[in-house]
Design a protein that fits this description.
With 493 residues, the protein is an alpha/beta fold. The chain has 13 helices and 21 strands. Strand 1 and strand 2 form a beta hairpin. The structure holds 2-aminohexanedioic acid.
Length: 493
Amino acid sequence: MKEVLAGLGIAETGSAASGDFIASHNPATGEELGRVRLAGEADYERILATAAEMFERWRLVPAPQRGEIVRQIGDELRRAKDDLGKLVSLETGKILAEGKGEVQEMIDVADFASGLSRQLYGLSMHSERPGHRMYEQWHPLGVVGVISAFNFPVAVWSWNALIAMVCGDTVVWKPSLKTPLCAIAVQNICDRVLERYGLNGVLNLVIGKDDVVGERLIRDRRVPLISATGSTRMGRHVSQVVAERLGRTLLELGGNNGVIVMDDADPDLVVRAVLFGAVGTAGQRCTSIRRLFLHKSIAPKITEKLIAAYRQVRIGDPLDSGILMGPLIDGAAVDNMMRGLATIQEQGGKILTGGKRLQGCFVEPTLVQAHPGMAMLKEELFAPVLYLIEFDQLEQAIAWHNDVPQGLSSAIFTTNLVSAETFLSARGSDCGIANVNIGTSGAEIGGAFGGEKDTGGGRESGSDSWKAYMRRQTVTVNWSGELPLAQGIKFDV
Ligand code: UN1
């Protein structure tokens, strides 16, 4: 562990912060990984001032040059992949393959962003007036505040920060207090590259409590965009505060993702996909599968296979190869899962397998036979609990599927074109992500990532998500020497 931290430049002392200390723990062992000094009010002010000042310079660096710097960050991340992947596993409890996968996601975003730096295209329009040119251009927005969650402590930051960087913005990052070491490691990696250009201050880190740092950040008029990942409760608050000052938000909040399995689906494919989607990251992804709608003619077979698979899931040290499921993030998460399971049973849900608390922060992955009326089906229980619900007709399954407040990711398993297209049509899934014959999690970075309803409506990472980090300017140039007015208006004396 010491070598991993040393390799990532995490030193014993050297914090410029002035607040209280917090400890970061390995959820698999309870061991203290390190202590971090939190930012106080003055630290926040200093960091914000740096980011705002650097924006004045950074916005003038041509976008392809900004892309080149992001490309070099990608190279540094390639070099740090093993150590950083390990640290992600140590601090979050996710298995090593997923820890490294998260760093790979960052590398992919760096590549994407660097290509994007030459493609920040605006449209040109035909003016209705002779001798006039009309087009739109995209300018940097300013300081972007990024609030990230514990479950993807590094990748989700990169979706925002590396795209915002090529867009010409500077970034202030407030990470989860459960994963401060991952954030420090990433900041060190990026600082190494920024230092080569004297550009430290383009990316900034402020580790602090919600009431000291979080509230200041979302209320700060110098920060035109807040991108926040976390619970719907948090997002609703952020949204209200930022809206009050007419700032922008990009929200990626709770998911409650459903999968519909038709009678013509390949059962083995379904079981493998569901296992990764529901048990992977111990059910702590915003994209985790939580509700499985099974066509009644295939339900017994899938249920039986799933119970067998769940019983074989190897639970243990996330750094051991062969382990599929590590611990939950902390004791509070375990308590929350146990409370959730009690409520599920009160509401008529039946535990088919799992459901028990193991040592420390470990739990058993759990399958629940559920019925569509259960209130708990509408809540995101951030744990490896999967509801099985039987249905008769696709239309009925789609209606149940959509009947939740959240709208992030969704999937259907079928070999029937009509069923697949129905699910993808306007009367199908109401989510931001809809998949056929793959699970709801593990999205590629090239697509826009985010969801509807209580998921917050934001889109991050791929496609044209970059537009959220820039301001659009519509330009009309009159080279005619005359002054014709639009809409044919005459206004001469
Ligand atoms: C999250 O859980 O907040 O699609 C993000 C996925 C990952 C990202 C999850 N690429 O599962």
